[in-house]
Every structure is written in C-alpha cells, then in structure tokens.
Amino acid sequence: MSTHIIACGPSGFAGAGRIMCNGLQNATEHGGKCTYVGPVTPFPWARGGSGDVEVTWRDEPVRSGAIGAGAAIANESVLLPLELADSLMRAARLSAAEGNEPVIWAHYLFPYGAAGLMAAALLRGSGVPVRLWLNPAGSDIWEVGPQLSELATGLLRDPGVDRIVTYSLSFAAELSDQYGVNRPIDVLKPCLGGGYRPLSAVDRAAARRRLGLPVDAFLISMHSNM
Asked: How many independent structural domains does the chain possess?
C-alpha cells in the first residue's frame, strides 16, 4: 500500500504557498503520490506547472438560491471550507478504493485545517481509513488564532489529528506554549524545489554589475514578506 498525500492550502501566499508546493514536489520526486485540492492553481505552479503533482477541484461551484444579503448564506466564500471538505473526501475515498493510504495534509488551520478535520472525521465514520496532518502557519497563531481561540485550541489538540508539522523549532515551542499542545510537533524545514539552481560565477558578476554593487564586496541579502 502506497501513501497518497492529498493537500490543501493557500494558493497565493508567497511563503506558505511556496513551502507547500516544494514539499509536494519533493515527495513526488522520491516516488510519492501527491494531489493538491483547491479552486486556484498555486502561484508557484502557474507558469512552470506542478510536475507530477495532480491539481484538482470540483467541476462546478456549489450553487444555492439561499446566497446573498439577508439569506441563509451571506456569500459564496462562506461555502469554501465545505467545498474543500467535500473535495478532500472525494479524493481520499477514490484513493483508498485504488489501494492507497490517503493522508490529508492541510496547510493553515483556517479554513484548510478545519476542512481537513471535518473530512477526516466523516471519512473515518464511513469506514475509510485516512490520516490527517496539520501544518499551522504564523497568522493561525498570531492573528486569527487568538480571535478563534476555542477553534484553534480544539484543532491543535484534537485526537483525530495524526501529525502536526511546522517550519521551525521556535515556532513549534510557541504552539506548545500558547495553545497547550502536549504532543510531538514535527519540524519540516522549508525545502527548495527541484528546479532551484544557484547562479554561476558569470551570472553573479553580471547581477552585481546590473545592480551597481562592488564586484568583490561581501553582501548580506534578505528576501521575505516581512
């Protein structure tokens, strides 16, 4: 039985999106089977493609006459967690029927982790074995989490979550301290995609000239979304 990682997460966030895509591509390069479930192709794959990672979503959005101001459902975005959960369930059920061991890997607790836990619980209740990995991110803990403290704490402590993965030892410690997570948290450091290649000496020299930098100067360069 082979493991099949079925992932969901943000498509447009530079940090989390890139880390998720690189992790999935590295898994396929080592023989794993991976699928991304979401309404938009993640931006790292928009130009260069996703390699051996399957990208899938529903054929049609969920439609209802009860959507709009004053209706039961305020707007279509309210349905996204439910669409995610339904799509994760479909992918996992099909994978299990094909003899694979499905793993739902949700990046960001909100709404992806919540959708993943819903899907995993319903699948298990119907007899489909599935594992659930949560990959919380900074805004889950520092921004949204404090506003949804019951939900954040419940997700991180839920026994239905098989694995919590994060990006650094310091962030893992912060999760444990702030939300009372008394379980192992695995640290998976951000990886480079297989397409990464360092610049040659000629290209580095050309880049320095283009930027007006001294050829032999020692430089420290920092690139982030801070």
From this structure: 1
Tokens of 154: 């419940």
CA count, 13 A, side-chain hemisphere, 226: 3
Residue 59 token pair = 């054929």
- What HEC string does the chain produce? CCEEEEEECCCCCHHHHHHHHHHHHHHHHCCCEEEEECCCCCHHHHCCCCCCCEEECCCCCCCCCCECCCCCECCHHHHHHHHHHHHHHHHHHHHHHCCCEEEEEEECHHHHHHHHHHHHHHHHHCCCCCEEEEECCHHHHHHHHHHCHHHHHHHHHCCCCCEEEECCHHHHHHHHHHHCCCCCCEECCCCCCCCCCCCCHHHHHHHHHHHCCCCCCCCCCCCCCC
pTM above 0.70, yes or no: yes
Q: What is the pLDDT of residues 103-128, one digit of tens each?
A: 999 999 999 999 999 999 999 999 99
**Tokens read off for 23:** 């992790």
73 with 67: CB under 8 angstroms? yes
Domain harbouring 88, CATH code: 3.40.50.2000
